[in-house]
Amino acid sequence: MVWLRNHPRFDRHVRPPVHPRLSRLRPALRARVAGLSVSGGRVGKRPVTLKDVAARAGVGAITVSRALREPAAVSAALRARIEQAVAELGYVANHAASSMAAGHSRIVPVVVPTLAHPVYVPFLDGVNAVLDEQGYQVLLGTTEYRQDREARLVEGLLGWAPAGLLLAGVDHTPALRVRLQALARTRPLVEFMDLDGEPIDLMVGFSHRAVGRAVADWFADRGFRHIAIVSTGAEHDLRAARRAQAFAEALAARGLRDDYILDGQGPSSIAGGGRLLAELLQRHPQVQAVFLANDDLAAGALFEAQRRGLRVPQDLALMGFNDAPIAAAVVPALSSVAVDRRGMGHTVATLLLERLAGATPQARVIDTGFSIVARASTDAPPRPTGDLT
Protein backbone atom coordinates (compact mmCIF):
# COMPACT_ATOMS: atom_id res chain seq x y z
CA MET A 1 0.00 0.00 0.00
CA VAL A 2 1.16 3.52 -0.81
CA TRP A 3 0.84 5.89 2.06
CA LEU A 4 -0.10 9.47 1.11
CA ARG A 5 0.33 12.27 3.57
CA ASN A 6 -1.91 15.40 3.70
CA HIS A 7 -4.15 14.30 0.87
CA PRO A 8 -7.81 15.02 1.76
CA ARG A 9 -9.24 12.12 -0.24
CA PHE A 10 -6.90 9.49 1.16
CA ASP A 11 -6.46 11.00 4.59
CA ARG A 12 -7.67 7.75 6.21
CA HIS A 13 -4.62 5.99 4.76
CA VAL A 14 -2.11 8.47 6.05
CA ARG A 15 0.39 6.78 8.36
CA PRO A 16 0.07 8.06 11.89
CA PRO A 17 3.10 9.68 13.46
CA VAL A 18 5.56 7.28 15.03
CA HIS A 19 7.56 7.82 18.17
CA PRO A 20 11.23 8.52 17.26
CA ARG A 21 12.42 5.59 19.35
CA LEU A 22 10.13 3.17 17.51
CA SER A 23 11.20 4.68 14.20
CA ARG A 24 14.79 3.64 14.87
CA LEU A 25 13.69 0.07 15.57
CA ARG A 26 11.59 -0.38 12.42
CA PRO A 27 14.49 -1.19 10.02
CA ALA A 28 15.72 -3.90 12.36
CA LEU A 29 12.24 -5.40 12.62
CA ARG A 30 11.78 -5.40 8.86
CA ALA A 31 15.20 -6.95 8.42
CA ARG A 32 14.39 -9.71 10.89
CA VAL A 33 11.23 -10.53 8.97
CA ALA A 34 13.11 -10.56 5.65
CA GLY A 35 15.98 -12.60 7.06
CA LEU A 36 18.47 -9.85 6.28
CA SER A 37 21.15 -8.26 8.47
CA VAL A 38 21.45 -4.72 9.76
CA SER A 39 24.56 -2.72 10.51
CA GLY A 40 24.91 0.97 11.14
CA GLY A 41 21.28 1.55 10.14
CA ARG A 42 21.71 -0.19 6.78
CA VAL A 43 19.34 -2.95 5.78
CA GLY A 44 19.90 -5.32 2.91
CA LYS A 45 22.06 -8.11 1.59
CA ARG A 46 25.33 -6.56 2.57
CA PRO A 47 28.40 -8.86 2.89
CA VAL A 48 28.47 -10.81 6.13
CA THR A 49 31.24 -9.60 8.40
CA LEU A 50 33.46 -11.22 10.98
CA LYS A 51 31.37 -9.56 13.69
CA ASP A 52 28.24 -11.25 12.32
CA VAL A 53 29.94 -14.64 12.58
CA ALA A 54 31.11 -13.84 16.10
CA ALA A 55 27.60 -12.85 17.16
CA ARG A 56 26.10 -16.01 15.70
CA ALA A 57 28.75 -18.21 17.36
CA GLY A 58 28.56 -16.34 20.66
CA VAL A 59 32.24 -15.42 20.77
CA GLY A 60 34.40 -12.39 20.11
CA ALA A 61 35.53 -11.32 16.63
CA ILE A 62 39.17 -11.87 17.62
CA THR A 63 38.38 -15.49 18.49
CA VAL A 64 36.72 -16.01 15.12
CA SER A 65 39.70 -14.47 13.34
CA ARG A 66 42.11 -16.72 15.23
CA ALA A 67 40.04 -19.83 14.50
CA LEU A 68 39.95 -19.07 10.77
CA ARG A 69 43.66 -18.21 10.54
CA GLU A 70 44.97 -20.91 12.88
CA PRO A 71 42.37 -23.66 13.36
CA ALA A 72 44.64 -25.55 15.76
CA ALA A 73 44.72 -22.53 18.10
CA VAL A 74 41.15 -23.10 19.36
CA SER A 75 39.35 -26.14 20.74
CA ALA A 76 37.60 -28.55 18.41
CA ALA A 77 34.20 -27.72 19.91
CA LEU A 78 34.68 -23.97 19.48
CA ARG A 79 36.04 -24.44 15.98
CA ALA A 80 32.97 -26.49 15.05
CA ARG A 81 30.64 -23.77 16.39
CA ILE A 82 32.43 -21.08 14.43
CA GLU A 83 32.50 -23.16 11.26
CA GLN A 84 28.76 -23.75 11.61
CA ALA A 85 28.17 -20.00 11.92
CA VAL A 86 30.33 -19.37 8.86
CA ALA A 87 28.35 -21.93 6.87
CA GLU A 88 24.94 -20.67 8.00
CA LEU A 89 25.75 -17.03 7.24
CA GLY A 90 27.71 -17.72 4.06
CA TYR A 91 30.68 -15.74 5.33
CA VAL A 92 33.54 -15.22 2.90
CA ALA A 93 36.81 -13.88 4.28
CA ASN A 94 38.17 -10.78 2.57
CA HIS A 95 41.75 -11.91 2.08
CA ALA A 96 42.63 -8.86 0.00
CA ALA A 97 41.81 -6.56 2.89
CA SER A 98 43.66 -8.77 5.36
CA SER A 99 46.70 -8.84 3.09
CA MET A 100 46.77 -5.06 2.82
CA ALA A 101 46.57 -4.70 6.59
CA ALA A 102 49.22 -7.33 7.36
CA GLY A 103 51.51 -6.74 4.39
CA HIS A 104 51.15 -10.37 3.33
CA SER A 105 48.48 -13.02 2.84
CA ARG A 106 48.17 -16.62 3.98
CA ILE A 107 48.80 -17.82 0.44
CA VAL A 108 51.95 -19.79 -0.37
CA PRO A 109 52.65 -20.16 -4.11
CA VAL A 110 54.36 -23.37 -5.21
CA VAL A 111 55.99 -23.23 -8.63
CA VAL A 112 56.78 -26.57 -10.33
CA PRO A 113 57.97 -27.37 -13.86
CA THR A 114 55.01 -29.45 -15.02
CA LEU A 115 51.94 -31.46 -14.10
CA ALA A 116 52.19 -33.60 -17.24
CA HIS A 117 53.33 -36.55 -15.13
CA PRO A 118 52.60 -37.17 -11.45
CA VAL A 119 56.13 -36.85 -10.08
CA TYR A 120 55.30 -33.65 -8.17
CA VAL A 121 52.02 -34.91 -6.68
CA PRO A 122 53.59 -36.53 -3.58
CA PHE A 123 55.62 -33.38 -2.96
CA LEU A 124 52.53 -31.17 -3.18
CA ASP A 125 50.67 -33.55 -0.89
CA GLY A 126 53.41 -33.19 1.73
CA VAL A 127 53.43 -29.39 1.45
CA ASN A 128 49.66 -29.08 1.67
CA ALA A 129 49.37 -31.45 4.61
CA VAL A 130 51.59 -29.17 6.71
CA LEU A 131 50.38 -25.76 5.51
CA ASP A 132 46.68 -26.59 5.64
CA GLU A 133 46.88 -27.36 9.36
CA GLN A 134 48.16 -23.84 9.96
CA GLY A 135 45.55 -22.13 7.81
CA TYR A 136 47.69 -21.49 4.73
CA GLN A 137 46.52 -22.13 1.18
CA VAL A 138 48.69 -23.37 -1.68
CA LEU A 139 48.60 -21.52 -5.00
CA LEU A 140 50.06 -23.66 -7.78
CA GLY A 141 51.85 -22.57 -10.94
CA THR A 142 53.80 -24.40 -13.67
CA THR A 143 56.71 -23.17 -15.78
CA GLU A 144 56.94 -25.97 -18.38
CA TYR A 145 60.71 -25.83 -17.76
CA ARG A 146 60.93 -22.28 -19.16
CA GLN A 147 62.89 -19.71 -17.14
CA ASP A 148 61.20 -16.79 -18.89
CA ARG A 149 57.81 -18.23 -18.00
CA GLU A 150 58.94 -18.72 -14.41
CA ALA A 151 59.92 -15.05 -14.20
CA ARG A 152 56.50 -13.88 -15.47
CA LEU A 153 54.69 -16.33 -13.23
CA VAL A 154 56.54 -15.31 -10.08
CA GLU A 155 55.97 -11.63 -10.79
CA GLY A 156 52.24 -12.29 -11.07
CA LEU A 157 52.15 -14.39 -7.91
CA LEU A 158 53.89 -11.70 -5.89
CA GLY A 159 50.86 -9.51 -6.52
CA TRP A 160 48.97 -11.75 -4.09
CA ALA A 161 51.31 -10.67 -1.28
CA PRO A 162 52.26 -14.28 -0.49
CA ALA A 163 53.47 -15.34 2.95
CA GLY A 164 56.41 -17.07 1.28
CA LEU A 165 57.40 -18.71 -1.97
CA LEU A 166 58.38 -22.28 -2.93
CA LEU A 167 60.27 -22.74 -6.21
CA ALA A 168 61.37 -25.97 -7.89
CA GLY A 169 65.03 -25.89 -8.85
CA VAL A 170 67.87 -23.41 -8.65
CA ASP A 171 67.94 -22.15 -12.25
CA HIS A 172 66.42 -18.69 -12.70
CA THR A 173 66.93 -15.77 -15.03
CA PRO A 174 69.49 -13.25 -13.69
CA ALA A 175 66.77 -10.62 -13.28
CA LEU A 176 64.51 -12.98 -11.37
CA ARG A 177 67.36 -14.02 -9.11
CA VAL A 178 67.92 -10.40 -8.13
CA ARG A 179 64.17 -10.03 -7.52
CA LEU A 180 64.10 -13.14 -5.35
CA GLN A 181 67.11 -12.01 -3.33
CA ALA A 182 65.24 -8.83 -2.46
CA LEU A 183 62.07 -10.80 -1.66
CA ALA A 184 63.97 -13.12 0.69
CA ARG A 185 64.74 -10.16 2.94
CA THR A 186 61.06 -9.83 3.85
CA ARG A 187 59.61 -13.35 3.59
CA PRO A 188 60.89 -16.94 3.32
CA LEU A 189 61.86 -18.43 -0.03
CA VAL A 190 62.58 -22.15 -0.40
CA GLU A 191 64.12 -23.66 -3.53
CA PHE A 192 63.44 -27.39 -3.62
CA MET A 193 64.19 -30.59 -5.55
CA ASP A 194 67.79 -29.57 -6.24
CA LEU A 195 71.04 -28.80 -4.41
CA ASP A 196 73.32 -28.05 -7.36
CA GLY A 197 73.49 -24.30 -6.91
CA GLU A 198 73.90 -21.45 -4.46
CA PRO A 199 70.75 -20.95 -2.35
CA ILE A 200 69.03 -17.58 -2.47
CA ASP A 201 67.52 -18.20 0.95
CA LEU A 202 66.68 -21.80 1.88
CA MET A 203 67.19 -24.99 -0.15
CA VAL A 204 65.82 -28.53 0.27
CA GLY A 205 66.44 -31.45 -2.07
CA PHE A 206 69.20 -33.60 -3.48
CA SER A 207 72.05 -33.32 -5.96
CA HIS A 208 71.17 -34.43 -9.48
CA ARG A 209 74.86 -34.56 -10.30
CA ALA A 210 75.29 -37.01 -7.43
CA VAL A 211 72.48 -39.13 -8.90
CA GLY A 212 74.19 -39.25 -12.31
CA ARG A 213 77.50 -40.30 -10.78
CA ALA A 214 75.90 -42.89 -8.50
CA VAL A 215 73.98 -44.64 -11.30
CA ALA A 216 77.01 -44.72 -13.62
CA ASP A 217 79.13 -46.20 -10.85
CA TRP A 218 76.39 -48.69 -9.93
CA PHE A 219 76.30 -50.15 -13.44
CA ALA A 220 80.09 -50.03 -13.90
CA ASP A 221 80.65 -51.81 -10.58
CA ARG A 222 78.52 -54.68 -11.88
CA GLY A 223 80.54 -55.16 -15.03
CA PHE A 224 78.50 -53.12 -17.53
CA ARG A 225 80.68 -51.37 -20.09
CA HIS A 226 78.23 -49.92 -22.62
CA ILE A 227 75.90 -47.78 -20.55
CA ALA A 228 73.54 -45.19 -22.01
CA ILE A 229 71.44 -42.37 -20.58
CA VAL A 230 68.18 -41.25 -22.21
CA SER A 231 66.09 -38.16 -21.49
CA THR A 232 63.67 -35.74 -23.10
CA GLY A 233 63.86 -31.95 -23.19
CA ALA A 234 67.16 -31.68 -21.32
CA GLU A 235 67.69 -28.38 -23.14
CA HIS A 236 65.14 -26.87 -20.74
CA ASP A 237 65.12 -29.48 -17.94
CA LEU A 238 68.48 -28.48 -16.52
CA ARG A 239 68.25 -30.95 -13.64
CA ALA A 240 68.08 -33.82 -16.14
CA ALA A 241 70.96 -32.22 -18.04
CA ARG A 242 73.10 -32.16 -14.89
CA ARG A 243 72.37 -35.83 -14.23
CA ALA A 244 73.44 -36.69 -17.77
CA GLN A 245 76.62 -34.61 -17.57
CA ALA A 246 77.71 -36.16 -14.26
CA PHE A 247 76.77 -39.62 -15.59
CA ALA A 248 79.07 -39.15 -18.60
CA GLU A 249 81.87 -37.73 -16.46
CA ALA A 250 81.75 -40.74 -14.13
CA LEU A 251 81.95 -43.17 -17.06
CA ALA A 252 84.85 -41.27 -18.61
CA ALA A 253 86.70 -41.35 -15.27
CA ARG A 254 86.51 -45.16 -15.45
CA GLY A 255 87.79 -45.27 -19.03
CA LEU A 256 84.35 -46.18 -20.44
CA ARG A 257 82.57 -44.66 -23.42
CA ASP A 258 80.69 -41.57 -22.36
CA ASP A 259 78.83 -40.72 -25.57
CA TYR A 260 75.82 -43.02 -25.28
CA ILE A 261 73.62 -40.03 -24.60
CA LEU A 262 70.25 -39.46 -26.24
CA ASP A 263 67.99 -36.49 -25.56
CA GLY A 264 64.66 -36.60 -27.32
CA GLN A 265 62.12 -33.91 -28.07
CA GLY A 266 58.52 -33.63 -27.02
CA PRO A 267 56.79 -34.47 -23.76
CA SER A 268 57.95 -37.33 -21.59
CA SER A 269 55.68 -40.36 -21.93
CA ILE A 270 55.55 -44.15 -22.05
CA ALA A 271 55.22 -44.05 -25.83
CA GLY A 272 58.16 -41.66 -26.00
CA GLY A 273 60.30 -44.10 -24.03
CA GLY A 274 59.68 -46.77 -26.64
CA ARG A 275 60.60 -44.47 -29.51
CA LEU A 276 63.77 -43.32 -27.78
CA LEU A 277 64.95 -46.86 -27.06
CA ALA A 278 64.39 -47.80 -30.71
CA GLU A 279 66.47 -44.80 -31.81
CA LEU A 280 69.21 -45.59 -29.29
CA LEU A 281 69.53 -49.23 -30.35
CA GLN A 282 69.61 -48.24 -33.99
CA ARG A 283 72.60 -46.02 -33.29
CA HIS A 284 74.30 -48.17 -30.66
CA PRO A 285 73.20 -51.83 -30.75
CA GLN A 286 75.99 -52.74 -28.33
CA VAL A 287 74.39 -50.89 -25.41
CA GLN A 288 73.98 -53.20 -22.39
CA ALA A 289 72.21 -50.91 -19.92
CA VAL A 290 70.10 -47.74 -20.10
CA PHE A 291 69.39 -45.13 -17.41
CA LEU A 292 66.22 -43.23 -18.33
CA ALA A 293 65.18 -39.79 -17.06
CA ASN A 294 61.97 -41.05 -15.44
CA ASP A 295 59.94 -44.19 -14.92
CA ASP A 296 57.44 -43.46 -17.71
CA LEU A 297 60.29 -43.47 -20.20
CA ALA A 298 61.71 -46.63 -18.61
CA ALA A 299 58.35 -48.41 -18.87
CA GLY A 300 58.10 -47.46 -22.54
CA ALA A 301 61.62 -48.73 -23.12
CA LEU A 302 60.71 -52.00 -21.42
CA PHE A 303 57.67 -52.49 -23.66
CA GLU A 304 59.73 -51.70 -26.77
CA ALA A 305 62.43 -54.17 -25.73
CA GLN A 306 59.80 -56.86 -25.23
CA ARG A 307 58.26 -56.04 -28.61
CA ARG A 308 61.68 -56.60 -30.18
CA GLY A 309 62.13 -59.91 -28.40
CA LEU A 310 64.88 -58.59 -26.14
CA ARG A 311 65.00 -60.07 -22.67
CA VAL A 312 65.14 -57.65 -19.76
CA PRO A 313 67.51 -57.82 -17.95
CA GLN A 314 69.48 -60.61 -19.71
CA ASP A 315 69.84 -58.75 -23.01
CA LEU A 316 69.28 -55.20 -21.78
CA ALA A 317 69.21 -53.73 -18.27
CA LEU A 318 66.92 -50.77 -17.61
CA MET A 319 66.73 -48.25 -14.75
CA GLY A 320 64.31 -45.36 -14.31
CA PHE A 321 64.20 -42.32 -12.07
CA ASN A 322 61.66 -41.15 -9.42
CA ASP A 323 60.52 -44.65 -8.38
CA ALA A 324 56.93 -43.93 -9.43
CA PRO A 325 54.26 -46.62 -8.83
CA ILE A 326 54.59 -47.88 -12.42
CA ALA A 327 58.18 -48.97 -11.73
CA ALA A 328 57.12 -51.71 -9.33
CA ALA A 329 53.94 -52.58 -11.26
CA VAL A 330 55.40 -53.69 -14.60
CA VAL A 331 56.95 -57.12 -15.29
CA PRO A 332 59.83 -57.33 -14.85
CA ALA A 333 59.78 -54.62 -12.20
CA LEU A 334 61.97 -51.64 -13.02
CA SER A 335 64.95 -50.56 -10.97
CA SER A 336 64.78 -46.86 -10.20
CA VAL A 337 66.22 -44.00 -8.18
CA ALA A 338 63.92 -43.25 -5.26
CA VAL A 339 63.43 -39.85 -3.65
CA ASP A 340 61.08 -39.26 -0.72
CA ARG A 341 59.11 -36.50 -2.40
CA ARG A 342 56.32 -36.39 0.14
CA GLY A 343 58.86 -36.16 2.93
CA MET A 344 60.61 -33.40 1.03
CA GLY A 345 57.35 -31.47 0.77
CA HIS A 346 56.81 -31.88 4.50
CA THR A 347 60.32 -30.59 5.22
CA VAL A 348 59.95 -27.62 2.88
CA ALA A 349 56.64 -26.53 4.41
CA THR A 350 57.91 -26.99 7.96
CA LEU A 351 60.99 -24.91 7.19
CA LEU A 352 58.84 -22.15 5.73
CA LEU A 353 56.58 -22.09 8.81
CA GLU A 354 59.58 -21.91 11.13
CA ARG A 355 60.80 -18.83 9.30
CA LEU A 356 57.36 -17.26 9.38
CA ALA A 357 57.33 -17.80 13.15
CA GLY A 358 60.60 -15.90 13.42
CA ALA A 359 62.85 -18.90 14.08
CA THR A 360 66.30 -19.26 12.55
CA PRO A 361 66.68 -22.63 10.78
CA GLN A 362 69.54 -24.83 11.94
CA ALA A 363 70.65 -25.18 8.32
CA ARG A 364 69.93 -23.21 5.14
CA VAL A 365 70.50 -26.28 2.96
CA ILE A 366 68.89 -29.67 3.72
CA ASP A 367 69.87 -32.75 1.74
CA THR A 368 66.95 -35.20 1.63
CA GLY A 369 69.05 -37.75 -0.28
CA PHE A 370 68.14 -40.50 -2.74
CA SER A 371 68.59 -44.25 -3.07
CA ILE A 372 68.91 -46.76 -5.90
CA VAL A 373 66.13 -49.36 -5.71
CA ALA A 374 67.37 -52.47 -7.52
CA ARG A 375 64.64 -54.66 -9.02
CA ALA A 376 64.39 -57.37 -11.65
CA SER A 377 65.12 -55.11 -14.65
CA THR A 378 68.82 -54.97 -13.68
CA ASP A 379 69.14 -58.33 -11.91
CA ALA A 380 71.45 -60.09 -14.39
CA PRO A 381 75.08 -59.81 -15.46
CA PRO A 382 75.73 -57.77 -18.61
CA ARG A 383 75.46 -59.63 -21.88
CA PRO A 384 78.75 -60.16 -23.77
CA THR A 385 79.35 -57.68 -26.55
CA GLY A 386 82.36 -59.33 -28.23
CA ASP A 387 84.70 -56.82 -29.79
CA LEU A 388 82.10 -54.09 -30.13
CA THR A 389 83.30 -50.88 -28.57
TrEMBL record:
Which Gene3D superfamilies does the protein's record reference? 3.40.50.2300, lambda repressor-like DNA-binding domains
Alphabetized GO MF terms? DNA binding
Q: Name one Pfam family in it.
A: Peripla_BP_3
Which keywords belong to this entry? DNA-binding, Transcription, Transcription regulation
Tell me where in this chain the HTH lacI-type domain is found.
48-102
| Signal peptide location | none
Source species, domain of life: Bacteria
Does the keyword section mention Transcription?
yes
For the keyword Phosphoprotein, the answer is no
The parts of the chain that form a coiled coil are none
- Which PANTHER family does the record match to this protein? LACI-RELATED TRANSCRIPTIONAL REPRESSOR (PTHR30146), TRANSCRIPTIONAL REGULATOR (PTHR30146:SF33)
Q: What is this protein called?
A: LacI family DNA-binding transcriptional regulator
